[in-house]
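Troubleshooting entry. Yesterday's outputs looked truncated, so today I'm pasting the complete records for two proteins to confirm everything comes through intact. If either block looks cut off, that's the bug. Protein one:
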Amino acid sequence: MVDSVGQGLQVKENIKFIPSLSEQRHKFVLDFVRKHKPQKVADLGCANCKLLWRLKYHESIEVLAGLDIDENILTRNIYRLHTGAGDYLDPRERPLTITLYHGSVVEKDPCLLGFDLITCIELIEHLEAKELAKFPEVIFGFFSPSMVIISTPNSEFNPLFSGKTLFRHPDHKFEWNRTQFQSWSLDAARHYGYSVEFTGLGEPPPGAEAVGFCTQIGVFVKNIPNTVESLNNEKTTECTHTTVGTVIYPSLKEEKYLRKAVSNEVFSQILKMKRVLVESLKMKNDSDSGDEPEFVKPKCDEFKSDSTEDTPKPFCIENVFYVPLERLFSFPKIKHLCGDLEMLKMLIADEVTLSSDGSSVMINIVNEEDGDLSDNDRDDLGFG
């Protein structure tokens, strides 16, 4: 069936976006975050918290905030942001705190000051006229983030939807065409010292290109970046938002998690080196007739890698395997986690047995048949 859509345009079937427009909008924000790496991000009108849930996986972000007028929807969906076992087994490098607030987007609350990015995804069309009039002053004037992303429906696209009447959602108070949205955005940008660029999501079907994107987007960037002095200038006002919940994620900035991460990596590398040693001993002693194994220093090539080539090699004295700390520190992940050799030594000192001069980790290699650490070795290393 062919439906007339005006201005000579026609669409033959109901329009369906793949991925959905909601997914495309989230991807737009995620790509923006990946490019610009903001540390503090707030999502206004966060509703089901799905965008916040996706944002929490970006390592650049240290503070996430969500604000919504519906407290019940925040309470029902905060579970998406809770920590899981994986967050403790593999902690983030940077700290992350997520806070959900209940309140209006046109109320000036200091809890949202100092953010790098504020997103308003499909939000402004839900505002009453009086709220919309306050919106630019609150967002651009008071909160004054470095960047703002605003998306809203493009009303020119609406005739292409089958069965749509005036607005796309019963709660929408208005829907703008491109000229209206761009005029409003340019006025706000000029008044509060921002530049703005326009784009959109949701391609129209062939023959209907003139209507533009289904979702129109304005990306605002502050002309003069926030300075430490400007962020420290407190804007005195009472708190109006109430906190629904706060989630704090474990991170390697906390010593107990850093210590565990370094110890696990040290254990992993020692285990690999010990397996090489035991395999070499097996090969040497396979032809022996039951004599005690002869402990020898393995060939250097057996422990060689690009990052460890110029470092002291592991060695054996009688039944003890020595792994120099310099060797361990040369592995990229351990070096990244510790920063310097003294930090490595400090972090593992209580977890392993060190040589008398503190230069090597010591483990026993007797009674090994399968190349794995014995229970005693695990105890010696502090890895139960």
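Protein two, checking that the full record survives here as well:
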Amino acid sequence: MAAGPPGSLVPLLLLLLGPALGPALGQGLGQTRFVCTSVPLDGDVCAASALGTGSAEELKGTVLQLRETVLQQKETIMNQKETIRELTAKLGRCESQSVLEPGEAKGRKGFAKNTMGDLSRPPAAETLSQLGQTLQSLKTRLENLEQFSRMNSSSQTNNLKDILQNKIDDLEKQVLSRVNSLEEGKLSPRNESEERGKIESTLTSLHQRISDLEKGQKDNRPPDRFQLTFPLRTNYMYAKVKKSLPEMYAFSICMWIKSNASPGMGTPFSYAVPGQANELVLIEWGNNPMEILINDKVAKLPFVINDGKWHHICVTWTTRDGVWEAYQDGTQTGNGENLAPYHPIKPQGVLVLGQEQDTLGGGFDATQAFVGELAHFNVWDRKLSPGEVYGLATCSSKALAGNVIAWAESNIDIYGGATKWTFEACRQLN
């Protein structure tokens, strides 16, 4: 057999000698593997062996790098799992604290609808103060009914008056009992809620009964001789003017107003149009002074009227340079300019008395509601003269009614327990 090239014998020799050499090499090196590397016919066996060794080292380095990367990712995953466990535990604690008992949840829903409408309950002292003001208002209205019944003797009217008077006396006893319980710390939050619901339910019934009696006076008084009463700060008690405002480049808005609500008497009126809820608003909110808003532009008014007495106020404005004037009890108390200049009051809106609108005709917030009494709300599409304003404030027989909105019972719809009854401020002045 002819001999071949030396390079072709390397794989064959390694294959034949491997079984024989393995045990001998294994004694000194332990577990051993043999790697066959093909070598070109004219190649160097030593060079090929060195090349194979380099490739193995590179592979080993790559494997080590991959292993290190896997370990790092595993550590990251473990950390993330620990973070998730911590967040899950915190979420569980939050959920367990926020769970309400069935009775409490039901009371919360009813609270927003049937009581004051606020997200949180007002302090007990403020609630008692409001109840006291409401009782005083009911007493005043009963006194008016007494005068009416004396002039129009009716045994039915007198009997109803006596029943209502007894109910008011019972209410006063309930309020006094509640004050004593609060002072002694006997009332739990749930008991306080139940007591509050009972008292407000009785008040609502009384308002309705008295309103029914007062309807009997309607035929015996002029159509403008009435006032609106908003006894509680709610998000459902208001009046709506049936007529909208036209486009106006000037206006005068005047009214009689009475309030001692604190902090702030709220919103006597608001006018909203599509796309602009604050087209024209008069508001006293929180501890801020009374403000007038026109197209969301604001001017602070120098009124001092939160004393529980009747006051006559007027605000005039013209779009030219945004000039405005404020009158209290017939006297100009302030003026300014640059209030929404060259912005005409837009037409086709909704005019609400007693609430501030966040949406067209709605979106009421109890904290901005008006608490008090309001009468002779008139609107003109021009600036009144100081003499005309004085005539209104002094109840002159020559005083003009508004040529845009005139104060008349037929022009007003009332909602949520707001009431109408005979206006007495001008009678007291005359």
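Both blocks look complete. Sanity check on protein two: The chain is about 45% helix and 20% strand.
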